[in-house]
Write a structure and sequence with these properties.
It contains 17 helices and 7 strands. It is mostly helical and about 475 residues long. A 4-stranded mixed beta sheet has the order 1-5-3-7. It has a 3-stranded antiparallel beta sheet with strand order 4-2-6. The two termini are about 60 Å apart.
Amino acid sequence: MDPDRSATHRHGGGSRTAARPPRAGPHDVRRGERGEALRLAMSEFLTGATLFALGVLVLGALVHVLDRTRPSPLEPLRTWLTHSVFTEAEATASLLQNISATVITVASITFSLMLVAIQQSASSLTGQVFDQFMRRRTNQFYFGFFVGLGAYSLLQTTTVHEGFNPVFGAGLTVAMSVVAVALLLVLVYAAVNQMRPVVIIEAMHDRLIEARLRQLRWIVTRTHRAPRLEGVPETAVTSDRTGFVLRIDLDAIQEALAGVPGPCEVVLEVCIGSYVAYGDPLARIRGADPGGAERVRVVIERGIRLERQRNIDAVDASFGLEQLETVGWTSTSGAQHNPQAARLVVAALRDVLARLAVEVHEDHPDTDIVYPDDFSVVLMNAIESLAVVTADSQQHQVAADIILALDSLLERVTADYRERSVDVLMRTLPALASHPPTLRLESALTRLQATLERIGEGDAAQATGTAVDRLRGRIGRVEADYTPR
């Protein structure tokens, strides 16, 4: 089964034979799909934390069995614990109660302070800081361990009575409490480390690269980029729901197409990450008779999954680009004046270009579906936006980094990316009038001019040379239309 298709069914896509509910009207404001909030919570945080907490409880249950059965090989250890540590059942119960209360209190205070620190980092960068923190398996382990330890201590307390002293269970509780204290130090450091801009941006970069590779493998290489049938009847498919496109079941749509007699194809009007409002076009069915088009329409509506929130866990790589753009824009704008984070974003986008724009990906379509891949558009628009916003903050070092990033890749990227890269550079040259004539900026432009001449972009090289001359002409001059901020 195709991973994209299996993911759709795992997340509630339903079977192909299931009857779809009647189309919603314009006054039905139900957004997304049923159970979406629970699925999002489970995928982001609850699954890992719950499994770790259950693991602690299962371990405790096994130890409780040892206390009940009292196996003979462990009897010497039990006798020693009873005489040396847990001498009376009443004292054991009191110890367990104190441990459970302490663990719950310390964990609550620590987690509350941690959330405040995360909020501060999110306010200066992006709300995706919260998503990253919750999605990390190590953080889920910490939370699950503390919750499991607190719950186990409470449950263990209820088993203690005058005739039963659970020395093994109490010993396990004490041992895990010592581990919990040590984990507090690790958790505090991990939380602080994860709030560093370099870690946040690196996580966004890595996840979007992985998402793009999955998108290429599961969707892009399996579909066509342009329609093949001309002059045939078309049937429009519109949405009766609202949300972001996060899943497209190519296999289900292709199977429906295979059941239609004669040539037929589906031209998708949306791609992964697209926002769809009520009545927006989802696809066009080309070449099918009315009856066949209706069957395909039902499958398309069921196979295109809309949800309220975007994530890049599967194939929404464009969302990762938008996250980086948001961080870069916030850091570059006059509201923050933080060139460090902005320069890290430019470096990350440069690496994305270097990894994904230097190779021509061979398509091997096994479907009659046309998919409008927009990743390159979103990527270049993000770089263009960051170049523009440098004019507001006058962060000349960020502007120079953007010029050097594109310059270093002009001779390596594919023709489409090269054309758009030159276009971005030419559109952002006017923003340089707001920058001081620094040597770094002049050197970047001079290097760019040489590269443009080398690759045969004469007009662009001439425009860049003019920009260099005007930049040099402002050295040592105070102009009325230039005011440092």
